[in-house]
Amino acid sequence: MANTVVITGGTAGIGLATAEKFAREGWNVGVVARHEGRLAEVEVRLRGLGARAVAVKADVADRDQVDAAADRIAREFGPIDVWVNNAMSTLVSPAGEIAMDEFRRVTEVTYHGQVFGTLAALRHMRPRGRGAVIQINSVLGIRPFPLQSAYAGAKAAALGFTNALRAELDHEGVAVSLSTIFLPAVNTPQFGGWARNRTGRRQIAPNPVYDPRLCANAVFFTALHPRRDVWVGRTTMMASVLQRLWPNVGDLQARSGWEGQLSNEPMPELPGNLFEPGPGSAVIDGPFSDQVLGSRHTFVTSRQRDIAVIGGIGGLAVAAAALVGALRRR
């Protein structure tokens, strides 16, 4: 019997790349999103890859809709093995120019959407005593940049929720894994006009820019080999290390993020997909394919980090012991 994965925001970009990856690997795939036309397109597309697929219309900011989507997919395929919280919304704007309903909407989709998705997944996984929930986060959840205050705040909240819930599940002895995958700049339709933008200039993806399929590979790896944290691309790992060791330097670096996210091309305000789904068909790639790095396997897991840290501590201990021995022989 094939395993089942549910992917929110699965009709474009990273979500669609992930859905296709699982479909090619023989999984049953449930996709949750808002745009009916893309949902129908993706369902046909995934079935064309040989998978059993169902696409469900739901707004992840509505808990009842998320619960109903989970129940429908479980009725269709049986137990849910992996749930990927990928849906997000954002806007590019100075914080003082963001309306309260915009802050609220980004939070409801990007943070509450992960909360509701996780709780729906646990409702199905907890009785079976197994399963994996994968949270798609961002380098901005580690090292916030200007013009991204609403999104960075929501991602930081999602990370705090995930870490607190992991401790609760450990305390209760519930064998459901919670993993967070931190992403760099990725070439998705977000940069093609889906992000609300009121800067008066076109948003660009700051280099280095990564392939959505790299992110999909990281998600699939994590589904099979659960890890606490996974960093995709060298920029996310570097940002994580810098934020922990020397956050003031990270602040200095972030100053360049304002201009680094904007081209000189003027443009009118974009409404984006904040309150309504973005236009267009189901596509994976955004407008910066010529900048994308070629590798689809550049990600680091917390286990690799832990091995490096333990190795470093061991090396220091050996060096310290050798120094003490040398001093005693004097």
UniProtKB/TrEMBL annotation:
Pfam families: adh_short (PF00106). One of its GO terms (molecular function) is oxidoreductase activity. Keywords: Membrane, Oxidoreductase, Transmembrane, Transmembrane helix. SUPFAM superfamilies: NAD(P)-binding Rossmann-fold domains. One of its GO terms (cellular component) is membrane. The chain crosses the membrane at residues 307-327. It comes from the Bacteria. Belongs to the short-chain dehydrogenases/reductases (SDR) family. This is NAD(P)-dependent dehydrogenase (Short-subunit alcohol dehydrogenase family).
